[in-house]
Amino acid sequence: MQNVRRTIGAVGIWSMELRGAARPEVREAAAELDQLGFPALWIPGLDGQGAVDDVEHLLAAAPGATVALGVLSMWGQDPAALGDRWAALDAAYGPRAVLGLGVSNAHSAANAGQDYGKPTVSMARFLDGLDAAPRPIPAERRLLGALGPKMVDLATARTSGWHPFLVTPEYSARQRARVGDGPLIAPHLAVVLDRDPGRARAAARAGVGMFIGFPAYRSNLARLGFGEKDLVPGGSDRLIDALVAWGDLDDVADRVQAHLDAGADHVTLHVLRPDTDGGGLPLRQWRELAALLPRFTARTAH
Question: With contact defined as beta carbons under 8 Å apart, do 224 and 171 qualify?
Fold first, then answer.
């Protein structure tokens, strides 16, 4: 577990745009992120199709970075095949890939022809499969997409830790106090580099607002003290401001520091942009965020 902490450092990049990593412009961007000094690149699993392929492309493009899949739905995955694939990645690129797993929802399970069951029981069964595979993925190279205490406890017992989505520093503080220093806590943090409150909040809602309506996130946010006035479609201003770091670099640095001070080990920065910025890769924002790295390097240098 300590090795994973040292490898991924304190701050990484989480990106939808890095999916599709076979494209030349994405490979070039990943190489630049590596050169800028980001120690970890995170990509979502989405529907699972091509996710491990993208991990491989990023490992090749960014030889100095850890690449984390955060997170891949366990449904439709074969533990033995996944173990074989991870072993092949290790042989080709060194042990730089981290597998994040999520239990997703009953719809995903049904699409894979499986019974959702109790989430922690289903996930524990899948982890049993990984452990029993001919080429098992080591526990220290796995993490879970977890929010509630039962899945957090499973992550603590069976993996290096967990990667929570839509959480505040208070979440990390509560969980760290509950589970102790052992497991890795690597929260996702959406970032909008815009000091205009209206534009920034609109970009935040467009990027993560839809998730506020999902039951698991609503339950977790309620545990953190957000009520019905906050858990409206798109989220209240109070909720958006608590979940998303918007403003200038100092504002983002303050929020990252708040997560780290609360007990998080690593914060994954997910750039969201106003519609006026257009599509494509957020290269300008990534370059700006690289200026934050020296502020947090000393934290993991020892």
Answer: yes
CB atoms under 10 Å from CB of 117, counted, come to: 13
Token digits of residue 230: 């906050």
CA 60 to chain centre: 20
What gap in Å lies between CA 149 and CA 123, rounded to an integer? 14
Alpha carbons within 13 angstroms on the beta-carbon side of residue 258 total: 16
Residue indicated by tokens 């039951």: 215
Cα–Cα distance for residue pair 228/238, rounded to 1 Å:
12
Which residue from 297, 299, 290 is spatially nearest to 41, judged by alpha carbons?
290
Residue from 83, 86, 85 nearest 132 by CA: 83
Instruction: Give pLDDT tens digits for 160-209.
Output: 999 999 999 999 999 999 999 999 999 999 999 999 999 999 999 999 99
Would you say 68 and 44 are in contact if contact means Cβ atoms under 8 Å apart? no
Which pLDDT tens digit goes with each residue over 22-75? 899 999 999 999 999 999 999 999 888 899 999 999 999 999 999 999 999 999
**Taking the model in full, what pTM does it have?**
0.95
Q: Angle between the 149-158 and 119-132 helix axes, to the nearest 10 degrees?
A: 10
Q: What element of type H or E holds 35?
A: helix 24-36
Burial class (CB in 10 A: 0-12, 13-18, 19+), 73: buried
Residue 134, judged by CB atoms within 10 A of its CB (0-12, 13-18, 19+), counts as: exposed
